Amino acid sequence: MFSSHQGYRGKATWGGATIGSMNHFCPWLRLRLRLRRISGLALPASRGQLITFQPSFTLTNAHPPICIFSQPALNIPSPWACLTLHFTAVHIAISIDYLERSLRSHAMADRSRSEVIMANPIGKGLDTFRVSFEYKCKDLAITGADALHHLSGEGQKNSLLDLISALLVCPASRLLPAKGNNVNLFGDLLELNTAVNAGNFDIKHILPLLRAVLNNEPDEAIWDNVYAAVAASTAFTVAIPTTPPLSAPSLAASFPQTPWLRNTSSFANSTEHRKYVDDVLKEELGTMYAGVPGLFEAFFGEIASLELAAQAVLERCKAGDNPLYLEGSGWQGWPESAKERDVLRWFAELTDQFLGFAEEHRPAPRPQRRPLAQPHQPLQGSTADRKLDIGFVDDLNAGVDSKCHWKQILIPGELKSNPSADIASKAWLDLGRYAREVFAAQDDRRFVLGFTLCGSRMRLWLFDRLGAIASEPFDVNDNGLQFVSVVLGFLWLNEEQLGFDPTIITKEGKRYIEIERKGCIERLVIDKVINRSPCIAGRATTCWKAHREGDNSRTPLVIKDSWQYPEREEEGELLRNAAEKGVINVARYYHHETVCVGGQNDDILMNVRRGLDITKAKNYRPESSMPPPSMAGRRIPRTGRSSSAGRKRSSSCTDALLPPSKRTCSSSPVKGGRGTANRVRRRTIVSDYGLPIYSASSPSKLLAALEACIEGYESLHTRDGRLQGDISPNNLRINEDERNPSWPAFIIDLDLAIKEQREKASGVRSKTGTRAFMAIGVLLDDENHSFMHDLESFFWVLFWICIHYDGPGKDIGPTEFECWNYEGNRKLAELKKGLISDEKDFLQTIETKFTSHYKSLVPCANRLRRKVFPNGGRWRDPNQRLYIEMKEILHAAQNELKG
């Protein structure tokens, strides 16, 4: 029976016979005092008799020791029965020992727990939840915790999530021990939160806790009920989830992901050197459609008396013995060599004469503008030095030596001496560079008109949030009337016709917009520009800080305008939905609308471009049949990936397609491409205002803000099933102003947010983001987007800030990492993989590159690297615990800094 126990040290004998090895029974020996306590225990015999158990034993000095049992005083004939009862007593004794130890341990833990609870009272920490719950139940016939049964399924779940969120904020939750395997009770609550959100719970397990909170019971009672709810969560019954469970989707892309396109608004801490910017600008603009019929009529046809005035001016130019213009030979004084300097002088002088001749025809009030030529003097207001050949400005006194700002440029122009420069890679791209600066400097500009003059060959241009289109070219000498009409048109266009936003009103030194909210008109006064994306094509987001007129407290609001693909969900709806689901630390909804101009939705195709048909452009080619520019001259890397949105180089002399950059990323797989796309302007207003996270007043505040933003991201994910999709320093905000009622730290921008559980691509043609902070898997574009990608982006945000800022908002300028703004996706992914793969190398990098202000965060950054990149490589399996692990690292680092 016992001889089968091998490897035990020591043997048990009965009457000289070995009956079992003894190491298994050492606890019996250690507990003989306890055995004596139960000596005399009456045990039932097989025939109803009572057996008195009085054990005795002798331990020999042999090696291994042998325990010899003496004949017990038992009135039963079999020694085996005696031995069985003997070991039964041993098990009882061991149970007593375990119980005594357990009681002592629990007593010590209870004392420790009580001390934590007393030192960290809940105070008013649950008051907001109580008020919120009572408000939800105000129309019910029942009050208290039992009212939970009478709420809808979503109402029940949201109330419980609100309660757990309130408990998570309480300091004691991070100091109290865990019930399970987590670091603390905070971790247990997060797991409970996940179970509740997934619908895997039974309300009855939560009711005692809810009742204790609503009844304002003592803190000890509340935390006891928290522990009970946490313990019960492991036995939650699985209900049919109202929200798809948080199990991560397969890593392999199950359908084409919306492609990331590079964009000139995505540079971070960059010099914006021209050789780098031009590559990205080419990709951003895509095909620049030239020869679009009707462009002049669409934009100049609304100018009163323009046709009549232009004809009259041309007649004046033809008159006299020394006419300015002769049919067949052109304009007097036209420089035959067409050198830029000479053409600039000729153009400026002729424009002044046109103005004089058109005096009696000019509209009232007279626009205050004139042409300005400063080809050798950089204009103010750009990141890098940018010069402008010629442009129309809103300052009649501006001259060659005036210091002008890009804010003053109404219409940019580009001059080239040779007509052969009238192609995409030369004059067109140069003009695009100027248009980008105009957009960036003028926060209320919807579109920009411009012109190119290559030799005597002139085109009109329109730059908008889809790209650029141009008129058919004409020769200024052969078509004098057209030239006069264009120049007068540039001088006489009103602000709305020039592309300024009429919904932003300026009056008595104040700028404001008006919205209709809850049946009333509200006027929102703009305090300042927060951000203006410096790009041409794209979402082109602009944010303003504002307040309601008449609000003496000037509670801040944020107005956001962005040009969205109509296929994409409205951010305002997403924010409102998030608010209804109790999402925390995400900008809170106030209002949203589609902006209207001229009585119709402000979109590109119909409202800005006036219905112009780009398929009639001279260089138009159906995009569905062309390879994308990023694939031009290269092998397409993966089969099964559509390139229907691409373009191929035109064979025409216009060189309409900009040459492909060596650093381009994959193009859209979605049908139609950018050529047939549309964008519509949407306005979203939120009630949370903060500064970019790199403005944090200290390293500790930065970590606290990151922790809160991760909580916000997690809340959006777990409560609403959405992934924010664009984690970057500007989308993480911090509020250290005690007078500001906004979240202390929060996430903004749900423009690129997606449902985690989706069955197909959104249909959106492309999306842009800040590439320096993109996850490696996103750059390689071979995985479904996951919450893990965005958590990795949080790591890159911290890494970037610690290198590029040496104090609150103190940018040290470009570093060796500037190339991350411009490198191709695969190259950038390889750079990032190389950086994080070896711990020693990573530590050496950050110890030398982190600024003195953030040097103390080196250990924290490395701990995050270990979690985000297990074993120094890309994660392969989604890890739901990464939320907890990252927050715990950030929280521990804060405590280290304080200590």
Automatic annotation (TrEMBL):
Alphabetical list of Pfam families matching this protein: Pkinase_fungal
InterPro entries: Kinase-like_dom_sf, Pkinase_fungal
Transmembrane segments: none
The Fungal-type protein kinase domain, residue ranges: 388-802
Region spans: Disordered: 361-382, 617-679
Superkingdom, taxonomy of origin: Eukaryota
Low complexity bias (residue ranges): 370-380
Protein name listed in UniProt: Fungal-type protein kinase domain-containing protein
